Amino acid sequence: MNFAMPQLIPRHEALARIIAEGGSPVCLMCAIRDHKVGDTHVIHEDDEMLVTLPRYVRRWGHVMVMPKQHLTAFSAMDPSSYLRMSMLSFHCSRMVERIQKPRRVYVASTGSSAGEITQSSEHLHVHVIPLYDVDDKPSSIFSWAEGVYVAEREEWEELRSAFSAALKAEMESMPVRQGAFGKTTDGLCSNGSPAGS
Question: Which domains does the chain have, with CATH numbers?
Answer without folding.
Answer: 7-152 (3.30.428.10)
